[in-house]
UniProtKB/TrEMBL annotation:
Gene Ontology molecular-function annotations: zinc ion binding
Domain C2H2-type: 20-47, 48-75, 76-103, 104-128
UniProt gene name: ZNF680
Keywords, in A-Z order: Metal-binding, Nucleus, Repeat, Zinc, Zinc-finger
Keyword Repeat set for record: yes
Species per Swiss-Prot/TrEMBL record: Macaca mulatta
Name recorded for this polypeptide: Zinc finger protein 680 isoform 1
Record flagged with keyword Zinc-finger: yes
Family: Belongs to the krueppel C2H2-type zinc-finger protein family.
InterPro entries per UniProt: Krueppel_C2H2_ZnFinger, Znf_C2H2_sf, Znf_C2H2_type
Entries under Gene3D superfamilies matching the protein: Classic Zinc Finger
Length: 128
């Protein structure tokens, strides 16, 4: 690290010193700004909207990734069904539909899901 303050900030990640805990789910975050962003998940707040399709997101970084689906070039093709994607990460997530794998399980009712986002949405039925 070129500055002592950067090392000090980085060290907090390992020590959990001055960490911030979400009252809703218990997740511990290292920065207050990250806690604010995280809380949007529980509030359903999605301030970042795609002008192309209208889909909204709770983080700007997620919107930036999403916008890539609207570009014409889709170099990542599924060998199973032929569907093409603009991002390798989207292709990887897509492949789960062919395996039938459901690695994300609800602690409350033990229902299983293909994607973490689907599990997160599902959990809302238990919290009201």
């Amino acid at each position: 690290f070129c500055m002592l303050s950067h090392l000090t900030q980085h060290t907090r990640i390992h020590t959990r010193e001055n960490s911030y805990k979400c009252e809703e789910c218990g997740k511990v975050l290292n920065w207050f700004s990250e806690l604010i962003k995280h809380k949007r998940i529980h509030m359903g707040e999605k301030p970042y909207k795609c002008e192309e399709c209208g889909r909204a997101f709770n983080q700007s970084s997620t919107l930036i990734k999403h916008k890539k689906i609207h570009i014409e070039e889709k170099p990542f093709k599924c060998e199973e069904c032929g569907k093409a994607f603009s991002l390798f990460s989207i292709l990887s997530k897509h492949k789960i539909i062919h395996t039938g794998d459901k690695p994300y399980k609800c602690d409350e009712c033990h229902k299983a899901f293909n994607w973490f986002a689907t599990l997160t949405n599902h959990k809302r039925i238990h919290t009201g």
